[in-house]
Design a protein that fits this description.
Helix content is 8%, strand content 44%. The protein is mainly beta. The protein has one domain: Sandwich (Jelly Rolls), CATH 2.60.120.
């Protein structure tokens, strides 16, 4: 008798991107989430203890602010719209312009900020492994992101 669940437990960056692409190509997935209001919205498409997949809508100008995904690696694919992903790696900012069909990956513990820079709503598909159980917010101090500790 086994006490572990079958299936894939660990995902590489490329596998997470492929998973997000798989859901992005599902007919109608972009219509499964509301496009109204001034705040971004998200809807979980599937989850296991080792993987979560979300669809998100981004009104013009919507941003995540600086954060990380704790122990989870992440990847996303843009379905509609234009976004900028800014990641803090190696002591500097790395900017990536994203348009429909483009993808980006974020390593566990990497601070980043994602913003819709287009005139209309953006739609993205995100895959996280393991599941997204924590997110650390950051503030910008002395030219770099600094994690906000609980109680700060």
């Amino acid at each position: 008798m086994t006490t572990t669940s079958p299936g894939v437990r660990d995902f590489t960056k490329d596998q997470l991107v492929r998973m997000a692409r798989l859901f992005a190509h599902e007919a109608g997935v972009a219509r499964t989430i509301e496009r109204s209001g001034a705040e971004r919205k998200r809807h979980q498409l599937t989850h296991t203890p080792h993987l979560e997949v979300w669809v998100m809508t981004w009104p013009p100008g919507a941003s995540t602010d600086w954060h990380d995904h704790g122990a989870a690696d992440g990847a996303m694919v843009v379905v509609e719209g234009e976004l900028i992903d800014v990641q803090w790696r190696g002591g500097s900012e790395h900017w990536l312009e994203l348009r429909p069909g483009d993808d980006a990956a974020v390593a566990a513990g990497t601070a980043h900020s994602l913003t819709n820079v287009g005139d209309g709503y953006a739609v993205t598909i995100h895959a996280y492994a393991p599941g997204l159980t924590e997110m650390t917010p950051y503030t910008w101090e002395n030219g770099r992101p600094v994690a906000i500790q609980p109680g700060d």
